[in-house]
Amino acid sequence: MSKLKININKPDPSKESIQKYKKYDSVIDTYHKFHSPRGIRELWYKDKRLLALIVTILMLLLILLFEGEFDEPIHQDTQNNPKNHMEQTE
What we know:
The protein has about 90 residues and is mainly alpha-helical. The protein has a domain at about 25-65. It is about 60% helix and about 0% strand. It is built from five helices and no strands. It has helices at about 15-20, 25-35, 35-45, 50-65, 80-90. The longest helix is centred in the middle third of the chain and has 18 residues, at about 50-65. The N and C termini lie far apart (about 100 Å). The mean pLDDT is about 75.
């Protein structure tokens, strides 16, 4: 036996129930919210977790990027300075 219910002669919904699902104002408000600079800025500031996550990821990327750069001590270049090169050969 099938568990599907097929409504062949289903009555049309009333106008009130149709109007309940027509929310054009909220659709337009959402459109303006996502497609204006002020709306995008408000979304970033309202969602604090997403903003904190993005900042954390950026900080981790910067740490990983510059991690090995400061480990080595700064050496003077002896090849470009002939006076230091002369002292080392003597």
